[in-house]
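User: I'm curious whether this sequence folds into something compact or stays loose and floppy. Could you predict its structure so I can see for myself?
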Amino acid sequence: MFFAITILLTAVTMLTAAKIVVNKMLKMSPVEAMKVVKQAGGEREGVTKKERYYNINPIFALAFGNIIRDKKKFALTVASLTIGCVIALGSCVLAVGTDSINKLSKSPDFEIGFTQEAIYNLLENNDDLSEKQLLTEELISDLILKCNLNQENLIKVYGYLPIYDGSAQNILGLLNEYRNHTIVVQKIDSTEWKNLMKYVLDNKLLIDTKRFDEGEGTIILHNHLSSKGNEKTQEGLIGKSILLYDIAPQGTKVSEISSIQLQNCGYLDISNNGFPDLNLSDNGADPIYFIVREKEFNRLSKSLTIQLLKTEINVSKEKENSVKSSLKSWVKEKNLLYQTKNDLQNQNLMYLVCNSDVIADQKNYIDGSRIILMSICTALLFVGIINYSNTMVMNILTRNRELIILESIGLSRKGLRSMLILEGLLYSFTIIGILLTAGNLFLFLLVKYVQSKLTYFKFVYPLPALLLLGLSLVFMCILIPFVAYGRHIKGSINQRIKQIEE
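Assistant: Here's the prediction. I'll summarize afterward.
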């Protein structure tokens, strides 16, 4: 009896254990069953590193294998997406770098110079030999005293305002209406000459750079006064001389006026694209500049009266408002004295330009330009993100059969989503890596090129745009598998296979 009971209990226990094992095996996927078999049998000899890697990280290995399975497709996809992202980042750099405020910020806080009316009165109506200068050092000293400035705040630009006779027709005759423009002789420093020479050589312009580089002769600058097709005429006038005279009272005989000759080294149009920035006085309405080097400038001082063409003033932000108020009062006072002394009305001696006022006047234009440029940048960024999203969605939709097969052989839906997310992350990290390497190189070359054309261009690394782009790519990698793959999980695997076959 005891033996029978023992046999019965043993049988019940074995059947119960067998049922548990069978139920568990029925619920186990083939992939899990393979793991159990491998664990039970131990790791076989001769397992390669690749196989061991696949065993440790099967989902990642599957995702990595999927994207490099078709290397050409992967390369083209990454290349097209990267190009779109680089264009978007480049547009951000250009939008910020070409902002009008960058150009205005390079201007001095204040600029004082004499007006065109004052030049006309000096050259045409001057009956007093003792007054050959418009802005004197005494005026500047009074300016420093009244406005609480010092010499370190000032940058002075000197030059000459010569007169000429009918012989100038030979040199200036090819410039349209040259008689309506003031002649200003001004020197340029070595840095300005280096930039100007590069511009001349790059554009293969007809300039006697050798003579000018030696400190002799002059280059004539004009603002679109020469007609097209005058190149041969200009070339023939290189090396010719022009006779300049000092300022003299009306009625003075030409033979009694101090004069000096300058040799022509060529003509340049300052309105052309790419013309380098020179610290020109800009006195009068588009003057014709005779630029010279230091050596020639000093030679001219023996015969011509030197003029203080303009004075630039820079102060700290804290003092800017108080200095502005003082300067406006000082300029107004001097203009009234000039009008009273010369019996003139509505004709001023000097002008005052306040950079803060210029920025305020152009605020609407600057804000409008910023809105337009940043809108373009934002649109390009979103185009890049949408292009990436479209690529990822199409990648999932075109792999419907493959995804069903993977699920049918035991890969869970969670595993499928993880695989798709990892595939997207591999794409996005590859793109971000290229942006941080080759993309940065492209931005560097772009900045160098633009800076050679626009001296006021300011480079600001597009870190916010890059972060937005990177985070958007990662976010899409997580979102898209849930949205796109969700369309394929309705119904059983058999039903989905039948839908594909139909």
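Summary: Residues 58-99+365-501 form one domain. The CA atoms of residues 98 and 228 lie 30 Å apart.
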